[in-house]
Amino acid sequence: MPPVRQLMQRVSNRMNRYVSSRHGERFPFYYVIEYPKSGGTWLGRMVSDVLQLPFPQKSIFPVGCSSVLHSHWPYMPKLKRVIYLYRDGRDIMVSAFFHRMRNIKLGDYPQHRQVKAHYEKLLGPGFDMDDARTHLPKFMDDLYKHPWGTDWTWTQHIDMWYRPDRRPDIAYVSYEQLRSDCAAHLKRIIEHVSGQSVEDWKIRIAVDKFSMERQTGRKAGEENRGHFIRKGVAGDWKNHFTREAAEVFNRLAGKTLITLGYEPDESWVQACGG
Fold first, then answer.
1. What is the dihedral sign for C-alpha 209, 212, 216, 217?
2. Which of 87, 124, 204, 263 could form a disulfide linkage to 38, CB 3.0–4.6 angstroms apart?
3. Tell me, what CATH number does 200's domain have?
4. To which H or E segment does residue 140 belong?
């Protein structure tokens, strides 16, 4: 059974979701919603810093004041002031693999033995936890059958939320946009959901304060597989995808990749290495 604190966090999250979907306007809340491993914690911290609002994470009590809430919730039409963050699903798969392996190595979460045993059965006894190139095909298949951190696959989550032509009230931003010009896109989405202009100096301070270098002491691209922030770049999937991994991902989510504009067609699969 999960420890008491984890159970309290789950109850808190469910209460926040209930209140948000029915009474969120009384506070009001701002929402940063993503599929896991899309960069939501990073974005949520910057948004809360600019707006000078609390950013409660892993709270064991329901939130009862105006705050920035970060979640992986499904689409709910009554939510206002929503920022939806999305990311190349191939990078999410790589990030999820190393995140899961890091947790297994650290043994710092409930059901550690069961999870390790699951991957021993899936990937083989004594499998190399650093060898994403070998294990990604089976890992991705398994993640789509048994999502963790949310009840939905990456494809399902995007299908629920990504409707920019029909939901103009939602501020959409990609992880890649934030990496390429963080200040411009952070200003754009905050002004979109707040309805107010934001001074540039506030944006600059938040971007610098929560940059990878300030948070980890490493530049983007310098990898540390033992840290929650592993690498902080876009396009890392190219270093880990084999042709087999590309074919598996294309079967699972190739159309979603095209919908989001990451690829014009399926020719990227043939371009992947052997």
1. negative
2. 87
3. 3.40.50.300
4. helix 132-145
